[in-house]
Amino acid sequence: MGDKGGDNHSEVTDFVLAGIRVRPELHILLFLLFLTVYGMVLLGNLSMIGIIVTDPRLNTPMYFFLGNLSVIDLAYSTVIVPKAMVNILSQKKTISFAGCVAQLFLYALFMVTEAFVLAAMAYDRFIAICNPLLYTVRMSRSLCIQLVAGSYLCGWVSSILQISVTFSMSFCASRVIDHFYCDSNPIEKISCSNIFTNKMVSLSLAVLIILPTIVVIVVSYMYIVSTVLKIRSSEGRKKAFSTCSSHLGVVSLLYGTVSFVYLTPPNNPELRKVASVCYILFTPMLNPLIYSLRNKDVKDAMRKVLWKKKVLL
């Protein structure tokens, strides 16, 4: 099953995912935690998608992006969590070589796509508040589709580059990945190849992804704040800021948890795993809650759905 000393990566047929190291008696509790939070991820994001698709009042650019954000959150959790739950209760804890490649590819794809979709949402809020009379012209349906398609394209290209350099390495020492899913950093640790190229590619991708998305978000909100402060009525300022608060909350949650994951000291892998749980499970669970609790249109749509169900019952 495994590789032999000096063999190339093509000899490897599977890897072992070490998972989160807890005492055996806590495995059931860990499984139930994953199951409960993942269930909430499914419920929250599927509900959000359903509400946006079925309510004609939410047929606007902002909710088009929000629907795609829910799809992305649902997707990257599903790529990782079900396999992690199986491994918690399993003795083998293996993942095939092809499965590991697919998991890393999809995880990177959705992670990068989410960053660009959030940047597109910031641009949408900028147009809505700073140029409200031109909003329907500027944020046309075709532009929204192009922005989302471009986000997926950026995710696809970066993922191809990431898996190309990661799985071109040789694995000579061990096939045990010290994580609960296939991520590039712990995979590099079990390689006997020179990983300088991998590090340079990862760093370059991080700069090319984070820099433009952060710039778009920061510049958009600089203009938004400047415009809102010019509104004379406090009610008008409050209404303008309320349309942005949910997006800012989601952006802060995403970049906060991702920073926690990748800025955690490499000599503390268990802390990095806990940080990864926050990003992979709790972020997609909280995103629908942030938008539903802070957004009047979503709350009204949810009440409408619940009222219909009550009438039918």
UniProtKB/TrEMBL annotation:
- What's one Pfam family the UniProt record gives for this protein? 7tm_4
The record's subcellular locations are: Cell membrane
Which InterPro entries is this protein grouped with?
A: GPCR_Rhodpsn, GPCR_Rhodpsn_7TM, Olfact_rcpt
Keywords, in A-Z order: Cell membrane, G-protein coupled receptor, Membrane, Olfaction, Receptor, Sensory transduction, Transducer, Transmembrane, Transmembrane helix
User: Which segments cross the bilayer?
Assistant: 28-51, 63-81, 101-123, 143-165, 203-229, 241-262, 274-293
| Cytoplasm keyword on record | no
Please indicate which superkingdom the organism of origin belongs to: Eukaryota
In the record, the note on similarity to other proteins reads: Belongs to the G-protein coupled receptor 1 family.
Q: Give the protein's biological function.
A: Putative odorant or sperm cell receptor.
Report the protein name in the record: Olfactory receptor
* Organism of derivation: Vicugna pacos
